[in-house]
């Protein structure tokens, strides 16, 4: 199994507690996910997120409807949490979210480790395309977080 990795980091002009609070609301995931995925949360096992919370989603990838379940495996507010795919389109998916106070704002980090299904043939045939799509998804996420949290920069 070939594990691929993506890392993104950005500074947001808001305090740590405010940014982390945004991520504790599962419904906000829809706000930072590209519309072309037609992303929808189907259920969340707990009202308040914590280690052991399961989140069930539905999305469309290149016209293919998919269901996906992740579980929060680590919950360390307000500095990090990790979700792991329990069931879904990847052979492996681990997403570490980090939050750090810096320069009067918050640095948000995303580190994703993932592997495409079907082993070597799957990686050979689709790995490059999946990596491109994962990058596009997280580029969109950065743009949306900038819009949500840094919108007041123009007013300063």
| Termini separation | 49 Å
The backbone outline, from C-alpha atoms, is globular
Fraction in helix: 25-40%
Rg (C-alpha, Å): 16 Å
What is the domain total for the residues? 1
Global structural class: alpha+beta
Spans with pLDDT under 50 lasting ≥5 residues?
none
Please count the beta strands (DSSP E, at least 2 residues each). 7
Fold and architecture overview:
This protein is of the alpha+beta class and 156 residues long. It has a single domain (4-150), classed as START domain (Alpha-D-Glucose-1,6-Bisphosphate, Chain A, domain 4, 2-Layer Sandwich). The protein has two helices and seven strands. It has helices at 16-23, 119-149, and strands at residues 4-12, 40-44, 54-61, 64-76, 80-87, 92-102, 105-115. It has a seven-stranded antiparallel beta sheet with strand order 1-7-6-5-4-3-2. The chain is globular, with a radius of gyration of 16 Å. It starts with a strand and ends in a 7-residue tail after the last helix. The model has no long low-confidence stretch (mean pLDDT 91).
Features:
156 residues; alpha+beta; Alpha-D-Glucose-1,6-Bisphosphate, Chain A, domain 4; seven-stranded antiparallel beta sheet; globular
Fold blueprint:
Blueprint: E1 4-12, H1 16-23, E2 40-44, E3 54-61, E4 64-76, E5 80-87, E6 92-102, E7 105-115, H2 119-149
Antiparallel strand pairs: 1-7, 2-3, 3-4, 4-5, 5-6, 6-7
């Amino acid at each position: 199994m070939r594990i691929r990795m993506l890392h993104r980091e950005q500074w947001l002009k808001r305090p740590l507690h405010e940014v982390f609070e945004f991520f504790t609301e599962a419904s906000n995931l829809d706000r930072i996910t590209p519309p072309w995925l037609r992303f929808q949360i189907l259920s969340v096992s707990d009202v308040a997120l914590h280690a052991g919370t399961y989140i069930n989603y539905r999305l469309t990838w290149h016209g293919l409807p998919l269901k996906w379940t992740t579980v929060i495996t680590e919950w360390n507010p307000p500095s990090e949490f990790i979700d792991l795919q329990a069931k879904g389109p990847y052979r492996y998916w681990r997403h570490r979210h980090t939050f750090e106070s810096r320069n009067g704002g918050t640095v948000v980090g995303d580190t994703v480790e993932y592997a495409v299904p079907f082993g070597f043939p799957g990686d050979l045939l689709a790995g490059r395309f999946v990596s491109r799509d994962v990058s596009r998804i997280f580029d969109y996420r950065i743009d949306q977080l900038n819009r949500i949290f840094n919108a007041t920069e123009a007013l300063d």
